[in-house]
């Protein structure tokens, strides 16, 4: 074979080897890119062996430099067959033994010893010869300006003449290894940080849940007993004291609920449901929650819902109601005079199959917001102006929570406001919708006179009545109304607002009665007192003047409809049960009703007994102050209904419920169990239901919810 052919064959062999080494590096880098950080050690060890075998090295390793202690330590090592491991002997090696290595690596240069036997006597030769090394090559591992360590290869069996290409490719591996290690460290740090953050969130949630439980337990007594006290015989001064205590307790409960909601949303624990919801019912229920606050401040509350709006849409009704109550609560808080309005608008999306945009708007005529204050509105624990916190109170979380909930519903709360003129907050929900048939007019009312000083309120009533083909006339005060009635008395119904200037609704009705008394030939219209107040003065005036009906503002469409229907057919009254029959039925129901209360706090036990006894005076109530006594009482008494506190000594409510359900499997009986807990988290409710409880009441106990559960659970 000629020299040229030999050279060509050698070049071909070298090229082939270079390509193979490149492919190995590509394979290693691919493995590292898709690597789970926890597999770093296994992959580093594997890649060291893979490269060592390819370059026919007998040992491959990684050292880390520690410039604080000025030492180097062997962290990874791969050894060929029958080659001794040196990793344990090469820990915390003083860098003074290898100054040439360190100096070269700091310059980002390769350090190698082609033939160890040719070295002069000294520390380096003393380190390498005992390991049987004949050839050595090391590659610096640097990250930015920091020298981290080096990758090395040893040839023990024979001297190895390494090529320049081989060196460059192994250097690429060293640089790649640095990047992979740093990425793995970063990912490991992020995973650890995430786990620590999640652990902190869990701890925070558990702390808040426990604190909520501890605070709600005494609050249960404060709210419950002040509620009961307000229904007892008290002097005006005593009633005011009790009312103040009750309002303060409810305020504290509101703060606790805000902080819990904020924590749940931050921790990602709050889920949004999509349920078919009656938009009219939702708006009217929201109005019920806040309307008495507007009545106390004597401001108008308007509920403006177009008559042609679709009746049903898909939404989370609880969370939507929470947003609206928060917005309305703020509007009422910052409005001293004028009005607060909840409006709902609808726009169908063209081209979409029964899908539309529902816009909810809360408008007020309150203090408004300056341009400087607007950026602070949606910040946690802050209000637009520090003085508002002192004057109006609150956590500053209401709007933040509302915005978070809105974002979970794929929308955002926007607002417009002018200082001293009021504000408007609004948001739009996109949802499928379903229309329902409008109720047919089933009453003989064709013309109504509306007497109300608020023009917007008159417009809303006029639109509602127009939908039932009822014509209307309007008056802004008593003088206008009486002037109108002098000329035209052909009205079936007169709706009179209570709060009006010059002459209130009662005085206006008294004058209207006098006017019609002078003209007995004219049919007297039915009169509806339209009031946001509900006190004894009105009740006595209603009886004295023979007022036909009273409606609470804002007008509920359903209530107004049924009120007109009832007035139109006022002669048709339901047949009442004979008194003795009612008494017999009530006594039978109460005397046969057997209730077991399991509650370890005496104050809560007394409160529950008092509320239940007020509803069912003849019912038998059995007390149990821990879970074991509850089980014993169940066996003995066979109650119709059980109220089960969750946290109790000896056996908690979950354990007691489990044992009762096991006993029922043998007997074939079933007893409704109502969970009582100060834990307000959704997970607590689910845990109770999973344990076999049927109903869930959160402390402080709401009397109305308790009464509702009693009705449902007892079936009486």
Describe the structure.
- There is one protein chain.
- The protein is of the alpha/beta class and 716 residues long.
- It folds into four domains: 18-190, Beta-Lactamase, CATH 3.30.450; 275-434, Heat Shock Protein 90 (2-Layer Sandwich); 447-568, Rossmann fold, CATH 3.40.50.2300; 579-714, Rossmann fold.
- Helices cover 48% and strands 20% of the residues.
- It is built from 21 helices and 23 strands.
- The strands form four sheets. Strands 7, 8, 9, 10, 11, 12 and 13 form a seven-stranded mixed sheet that branches.
- Helix 11 links the parallel strand 14 and strand 15.
- Helix 1 (3-33) runs antiparallel to helix 2 (40-54), helix 1 (3-33) packs parallel to helix 5 (164-230) and helix 18 runs parallel beside helix 19.
- The longest helix has 67 residues, at 164-230.
- It is elongated.
What is the class of the largest domain in the CATH system?
Alpha Beta
> What's the total count of β strands?
23
- CATH architecture descriptor of the largest domain: 2-Layer Sandwich
Structural class: alpha/beta
Low-confidence stretches: 384-393, 571-589
Using the coordinates shown, work out and report the CATH topology of the largest domain.
Answer: Beta-Lactamase
Taking Cα atoms only, what radius of gyration do you get, to the nearest Å? 41 Å
- CATH superfamily of the largest domain, by name, is GAF domain
Number of helices: 21
Basic shape: elongated
């Amino acid at each position: 074979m000629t020299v040229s052919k030999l050279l060509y064959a050698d070049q071909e062999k070298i090229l082939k080897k270079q390509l193979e080494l490149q492919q190995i590096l590509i394979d290693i880098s691919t493995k590292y890119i898709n690597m789970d950080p926890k597999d770093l050690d296994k992959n580093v060890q594997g890649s060291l062996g893979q490269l060592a075998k390819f370059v026919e090295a007998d040992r491959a390793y990684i050292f880390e430099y520690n410039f604080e202690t000025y030492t180097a330590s062997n962290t990874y090592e791969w050894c060929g067959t029958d080659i001794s491991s040196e990793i344990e002997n090469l820990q915390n090696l003083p860098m003074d033994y290898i100054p040439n290595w360190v100096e070269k690596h700091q310059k980002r240069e390769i350090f190698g010893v082609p033939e160890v036997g040719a070295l002069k006597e000294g520390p380096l030769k003393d380190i390498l010869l005992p390991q049987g090394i004949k050839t050595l090559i090391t590659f610096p591992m640097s990250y930015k300006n920091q020298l981290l360590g080096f990758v090395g290869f040893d040839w023990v069996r024979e001297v190895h003449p390494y090529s320049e290409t081989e060196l460059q490719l192994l250097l690429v591996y060293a640089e790649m290894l640095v990047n992979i290690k740093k990425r793995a460290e970063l990912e490991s740090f992020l995973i650890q940080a995430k786990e620590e953050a999640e652990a902190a969130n869990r701890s925070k949630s558990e702390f808040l849940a426990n604190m909520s439980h501890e605070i709600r337990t005494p609050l249960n007594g404060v709210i419950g007993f002040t509620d009961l006290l307000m229904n007892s015989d008290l002097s005006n001064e005593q009633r005011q004291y009790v009312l103040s205590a009750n309002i303060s307790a409810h305020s504290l409960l509101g703060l606790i609920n805000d902080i819990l909601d904020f924590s749940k949303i931050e921790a990602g624990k709050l889920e949004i449901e999509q349920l078919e919801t009656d938009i009219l019912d939702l708006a009217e229920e929201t109005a019920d929650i806040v309307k008495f606050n507007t009545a106390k401040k004597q401001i108008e509350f308007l509920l403006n819902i177009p008559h042609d709006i679709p009746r049903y849409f898909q939404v989370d009704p609880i969370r939507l109601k929470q947003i609206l109550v928060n917005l309305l609560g703020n509007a009422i808080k910052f409005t001293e005079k004028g009005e607060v309005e909840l409006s709902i608008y609808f726009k169908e999306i063209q081209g979409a199959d029964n899908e539309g945009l529902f816009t909810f708007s809360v408008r007020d005529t309150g203090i408004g917001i300056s341009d400087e204050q607007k950026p602070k509105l949606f910040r946690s624990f802050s209000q637009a102006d520090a003085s508002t916190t002192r004057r109006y109170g609150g956590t500053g979380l209401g709007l933040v929570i509302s915005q978070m909930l809105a974002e979970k519903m794929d929308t955002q709360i926007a607002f417009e406001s002018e200082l001293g003129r009021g504000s408007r907050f609004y948001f739009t929900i996109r949802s499928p919708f379903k229309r329902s048939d409008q109720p047919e007019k089933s009453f003989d009312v064709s013309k109504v006179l509306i007497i109300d000083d608020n023009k917007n309120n008159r417009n809303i009533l006029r639109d509602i009545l127009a939908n039932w083909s009822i014509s209307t006339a309007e008056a802004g005060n008593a003088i206008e109304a009486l002037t109108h009635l002098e000329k035209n008395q052909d009205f079936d119904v007169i709706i009179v607002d209570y709060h009006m200037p010059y002459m209130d609704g009662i005085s206006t009705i008294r004058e209207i009665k006098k006017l019609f008394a002078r003209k007995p030939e004219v049919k007297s219209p039915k009169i509806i007192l339209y009031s946001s107040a509900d006190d004894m003065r009105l009740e006595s005036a209603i009886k004295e003047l023979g007022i036909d009906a009273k409606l609470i503002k804002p007008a509920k469409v359903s209530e107004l409809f049924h009120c007109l229907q009832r007035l139109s057919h006022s002669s048709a009254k339901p047949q009442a049960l004979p008194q003795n029959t009612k008494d017999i039925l009530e006594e039978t129901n109460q005397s046969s009703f057997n209730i077991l209360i399991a509650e370890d706090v005496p104050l809560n036990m007394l409160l529950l007994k008092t509320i239940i006894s007020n509803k069912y005076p003849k019912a038998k109530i059995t007390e149990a102050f821990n879970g074991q006594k509850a089980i014993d009482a169940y066996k003995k008494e066979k109650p119709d209904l059980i109220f089960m506190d969750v946290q109790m000594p000896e056996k908690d409510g979950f354990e007691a419920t489990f044992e009762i359900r096991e006993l029922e499997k043998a007997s074939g009986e079933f007893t409704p169990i109502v969970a009582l807990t100060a834990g307000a988290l959704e997970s607590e409710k689910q845990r109770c239901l999973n344990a076999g409880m049927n109903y869930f009441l959160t402390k402080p106990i709401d009397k109305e919810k308790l009464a509702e559960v009693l009705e449902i659970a007892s079936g009486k």
